[in-house]
Structures are given as C-alpha cells and as structure tokens.
Amino acid sequence: MSQDTLSDVLRAVRLRGAVFFNVSCSGQWAAEAPAAKDIAPLLMPGTEHVIEYHAVAQGNCWAGIVGEPPVHLSAGDVVMFPHGNAHVVSSAPGLRGVADFSWSPNASTDRLPLRISYKGANVQQMDCAEPDPDAEAMIVCGFLGCDLKPFNPLIAALPRLLHLRAGADNAWIANFTQQAVAEASARRPGGEAMLARMSEMMFVDAVRRHADQLPPNSAGWLAGLRDRFVGRALALMHEQPAQHWTIDELGRCVGLSRSALHERFAELIGVPPMQYLAQWRMQAGARLLLETRSTVATIAVEVGYDSEAAFARAFKRSVGKPPAAWRRERDAGIGAKGSPR
Predict the structure, then answer these.
(1) What is the CATH T-level fold of the domain 16-212, as seen in this structure?
(2) Hey, which end of the chain has fewer CB within 10 Å, N or C?
(3) If we measure between CA atoms, which residue out of 315, 309, 330, 256 comes closest to residue 283?
(4) Low-confidence winner among 127-136, 200-209, 230-239, 284-293 (lowest mean pLDDT)
(5) What are the pLDDT digits (tens) for 206-215?
(6) How far is 265 from 338, CA to CA, in rounded Å?
(7) CATH fold of 221-336, please?
(8) Half-sphere exposure of 22 (CA within 13 A, CB side)
(9) What is d(CA 296, CA 285) in angstroms, rounded to the nearest whole number?
(10) What is the mean predicted confidence (pLDDT) over 319-332?
(11) Where are the alpha helices (H) located in 213-246, listed in sequence order?
C-alpha cells in the first residue's frame, strides 16, 4: 500500500466529482444553496456526503455560509464548503436567494453541465442554449462526493469554508474555470468525465494548500500528517493495517517512547493510536467489501482481525450493520440509482 497517507484516505473514501451547473449572472443577484445533505439524493444519488464548490470564471461575487460573513471572490478564485453547509453566492454581501432545488428532478441531466442564467434573485432561465453573453459574472458550480462511514478523518480536519485565491502558484485553477466554461458551451463527448476528474484534482490541491498553511501549533488530522513522528505512525498503520501493531512497536518504529507517542498522537489526532487503527481498519474493510468479491472472512484477515466474527462485531458497532448486510445494501443502492459519479 502507498506511503502517501492522504492519497490512501482519498481512495478509501471514494472521492468523486461532478460538474452540474454553469451559471451566468447579471444585475443584483443571489443564489442560495440548501445544506448538501438535503440535495445530495437529487444531485449525486448513492453518495453519503457532498462537498459543494464554486469557481469564478469571470467577474466578481461574494460567497459565504448562511448567517456568517462572506468572502470576496475574483476571477480564478474557488470557494468550497467541505461540510456541506447551506450557503449564498451573490453579487454583493448581505443578499439572500431562494434555497429551492425542487426543479432538479425535472432538469435534463443527460447533457451536463446544465446552464443557468440569473438576473436578480431568481433563476431566469434553466438549461439555456448559450451562456449569457452580457453576463457580469460566470461561475462553475460543482459537487464532490465521498463516504463518511465507517471512517473519514479528512472531512473533520477541514474548515467549513475553504477559499482558494487565484495566483501564480495555482494558475491551473484559473485554467480549470475557463475549461469548464468551454466544456459547458461545447458539450463535447467525454467533457463531463474530464471535468469530474479535474474537480477531484482541485479538491486534493485545496487540501494540500490548506495543510501547508496551517499554523505550527495546529492540531487535527492534517497537522498530524505533517508531524515527523505522528505522520510516520499514521503511514505505518495505513500501509499495514493487518499488522498486529502495539503502541510499543509503533513507538520503536517512529523513534519515540510508548508514552510520548501516545501523548503526541492523541494531542494532534484527537484519539489514541490504537483507537485510530481500529477505525482505519473498518474503513479499509469497507473499501474491500465494496470493491472486491472477497469473502468477509478473507477481508477480516486482510485488515488485521483474527476471525470473521471479531471483524463482524467491530464493523456492526461502527456502521450499525454486519458487513455482509451492509455490502448487500450498498450494492442494491448503487444498482438501483446508478453508480455514483
């Protein structure tokens, strides 16, 4: 397994992107989005958690969580809402829109992205033939889905609003917004898939930049990745979840005493090393349940359990269902709704 712990988690929680809207805006306008949990079943069926983002291709706007001060966005900027909070994007601070996605089941989703024109607070035109040539602002609105259960340490480590400013160090993000607008206009074969992958790349870049900018005394999973000792302990557990790790063995491998590693790990990550290992084993097992046809007994051994029964008990405590029942339910859900994008 990879020593890149962040990539390991992103694979395990099945990060996947989709671009749904290309928005043209003029005048005094405001677009309000409800909490992601309320619209995820409509926009990304079968997805546990949805992260929304808005990339400004042209003009300026403001974006913020409902009830909190907004941030100013310029062309090339991207704003993300990792926890899926209800939020507003508008031409000026303090404006509110209508959080209404009741139209989405009737929208034509066979030709994405959808093109929307805002003139004022309400949608003036849905799936318009061409972007408004007189638009004062053009925004690409997209969604990133991931799993939260059994264990996703990344989402909790991110702020509720993540603002990526355009600049020389991330010029490709500005290129992404321009490419997204071009794809929305041309609707070429493969464009939706290409934009989805670019969305995932943008999210990973946002996470890395956020981690790089954390103050030295920060705590949390991303801060733990940066720490010389805790980061190595995390990598070892991710590389070899089936290893019968003890706190003593981990301490020897990273160069700390048992007590020093326990204290440092718990201070940064928020849980002791062995508790983290148990949680990660559940996520690793869940991934194998979804992506392979291996038996539960085989998966139990692969993630570090001595017996199928022990793994099944731990898995049920974590997600509320035995592994075989959870696998059947997830398979049925994906089959009925279509594979998540």
Answers:
(1) Jelly Rolls (2.60.120)
(2) N
(3) 315
(4) 127-136
(5) 898 899 889 9
(6) 40
(7) Arc Repressor Mutant, subunit A (1.10.10)
(8) 29
(9) 9
(10) 91
(11) 221-226, 228-239
